[in-house]
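Hello,

Our lab assistant flagged a job as stuck in the queue for most of the afternoon. It eventually completed. Since we weren't sure the result was trustworthy after the delay, we are filing this so someone can double-check. Below is the sequence as submitted and the structure that was eventually returned. Let us know if re-running is recommended.
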Amino acid sequence: MANKQTRVVATGLTALLSLGLITHTAYGQQRTFTPSYETAPTPIKRHNPNDTDSSWLNDADIDKTARKYLNKALRPDGLRVEALHLQATQAELRFRNNRYNVTPQAFGRAARAMANVLPNSVSTFVLTPVVDGLPVSSVTFNRSDLEAYENHPNGTKLSFSNAVISDPVLKTRDLKFDEKLYPKFTWSLGPYVELNHDDLTGSNQYSVRARANADWHISPGFSLSGSVTKELFGNISTNTPSTSTLQHVRSDRGLYIEQGDPAVEKLKLDYLFKATPSVYGRLSAGYLERAFGGVSGELLWKPAAQSWGLGAEVNRVKQRDFGNVFSFQDYEVTSGHISAYKEFKGGLSTQIDVGRYLAGDYGTTLSFDKRFTNGWSAGVFATKSNARVDEDTKTGFRVTIPLNWIMKTPSRANYDIAFGSSGADAGSRLRVDNRLYGKVREYHSTELDDSWARFWR
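-- returned structure --
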């Protein structure tokens, strides 16, 4: 069964990689990433470097006024001012990227807005993207470089080599936040598909579901979120009892559908924070996923200009009841992992996790991912557990489909599909939806370098 499962994973990944390579070839030369109908960027207005007058700082409303005009310039590009720090010769813009899945394009649009709005005396721009309240990197430009390289034949290479990528400074009183951003309520409704290999029946199974999400962003990094799901159709077995000798942390998933559909998938509080400029933190508490609730904590050390990082996660969770939305079973466990991350040129990355899984077993998970320049990504993963059961190895693949590839307009929306032996109890990890590395990776130096060709677009 394991060999058959491995062949299924290999065949599926080959097909998906082939599709990614084909679409990359088709669009890579002329329309890298997004064959879209997006608007052209606003040309940069040249400033007068001899104008060093900084009396504008004496205006008591200068921060509010600057945010107003920056937001006006950024809004057509789907960007938003999170916070602003103005000085006579330097300005830091902390912004949200709500549109571009190619991060350098967001940096380029934000830099143009600063050049066209800020007074002549500001000669240095610091751009800091913010993700769910976390400042994830800072890229510093000389204003004169932006003007010189905008239409230079080698402007892409020159703009990147002269930019400084660093860890953002921690929040200070000098940063003026947009008071309209918090608190903020958002919601969404849409379908999703779950695919997996059932180790009990030896079959490949699927479930098509609808999911309603709601998020209340209380303050920077602090939020309350929840989701409700309902199966529309599928073939996940609800009448084949699990014979696993381990705690049934995944193999009883059919009972969750049979007895608890629709279901409160999650209802939790999250706090994301920066412990130091290069150390990120996460605390989560509540109903963390469909099968488990409790508390989860994570730390990630990942300098923005470095291609590798280290992380640690600890969870204390209890298994949820099949049908009673807010009740628990008797089983509880402490799980956690030490993780190492490495990024390579060309969109390649690898991750290794070593630790304890939900069934109390110990083991290692190794994964490889490839991100293509058309926005697609594909990866494989494998877990080896010390559990003394037949299915002590879990393998699978995953693919991310950017919706802008379909809609032809810039968008950060994507569709994730994963296929693997998710029904096995051995090697099962807590399904936390906001792990830190996935939030920061695209804003750090290696991935920025790979996709910097979009900076001037």
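-- support follow-up --
The delay was a queue issue, not a problem with the job. The result is valid. The chain has two domains: 2-26+186-448, 42-180. The first helix runs from residue 2 to 28.
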